[in-house]
Amino acid sequence: MTVLITGGSRGIGAAIAKRFAVEGFNIVIHYLNSHESANETARICMTYGVQVLTISADLRSKEQLERMKEKLEAHGMMPDIIVNNGGIAHYGLLADVSEEVWDDVMAVNLKGMFLITQLFMPNMVAQRFGRIINVSSIWGISGASCEVLYSTTKGGMNAFTKALAKELAPSGITVNAVAPGAVDTEMMDSFDEDEKAAIKQDIPLGRLGTADEIASLVYFLSLPESSYITGQIISPNGGWLT
User: Fold this and answer.
1) Is the per-residue pLDDT at 73 higher than 90?
2) CA–CA separation, 130 and 120 (whole Å)
3) Is 150 known to be catalytic?
4) Most buried of the four, 39, 67, 108, 222, by CB within 10 Å?
5) Residues 6+ apart with CB under 8 A from 145
6) What are phi and psi for residue 239, nearest 5 degrees?
7) What residue segments make up the domains of the chain, in order of their start?
8) Architecture of 2-234 per CATH?
9) Which phi-psi region, left, alpha or beta, contains residue 151 (left: φ > 0; alpha: ψ -120 to 50)?
């Protein structure tokens, strides 16, 4: 079994890659610019005796993603499981968002997920098995002030998940989204310690989540035991949003 993780070089993506490697899955780590991080994650995954392939491609480019697919076919590593984790954050007032920034974040977070899924879905349909797991955000459910653009992309991801789950269910493919709350990764680096403390105070469990906790949930959604779960947006958020 092979799993493709977009944005798999660091943070939640790297934790997901390692979690699947521990369980014996072959791993495809997609990244754009984080070459060294991708290689480091790959080296860790390889210690578990699995095949690992790193590949760089721009999620906004259908041409680059088609070349990525050709490479995976050549290596016999077409994915049985897709984790659409690649994405970029955006923080700022909507009034200050330029059309170019809007288009760019939309292209990476939504178009990229669409292109990856569309390219690799036919193989899953042919084998009548597959798992598509989209890494969304709590803000795709509730929305966040000063994160309108980001929230919009994640809300779109959630709608995509629900609709595609219905479309692919007859083919034995499940489609779910994991929508984390505040997780202690590089995405939180823009917040200072006081801001992080304020966020923790708002979370009933009193702490940030970990990348490993998110990875474990993603892994569970790939298991045979999860085969009756599809079209769901599951939010591990410490009770922040219920």
Assistant:
1) yes
2) 10
3) yes
4) 222
5) none
6) 90, 5
7) 2-234
8) 3-Layer(aba) Sandwich (3.40)
9) alpha
Three-state SS string over the chain comes to CEEEECCCCCHHHHHHHHHHHHCCCEEEEEECCCHHHHHHHHHHHHCCCCCEEEEECCCCCHHHHHHHHHHHHHCCCCCCEEEECCCCCCCCCHHHCCHHHHHHHHHHHHHHHHHHHHHHHHHHHHHCCEEEEEECCCHHHHCCCCCHHHHHHHHHHHHHHHHHHHHHHHHCEEEEEECCCCECCHHHCCCCHHHHHHHHHHCCCCCCECHHHHHHHHHHCCCHHHCCCCCCEECCCCCCCC
Tokens 């999620």 sit on residue: 59
pTM above 0.85, yes or no: yes
Query: How many angstroms separate the first and last alpha carbons of the chain?
Result: 34
pLDDT at 187 over 90: no
CA-wise closest residue to 30 among 21, 20, 17: 17
Q: Choose, from 31, 48, 150, 219, the residue flagged as catalytic.
A: 150
Tens digit of each residue's pLDDT (9 = 90 or more) over 83-129:
999 999 898 999 999 999 999 999 999 999 999 999 999 999 999 99
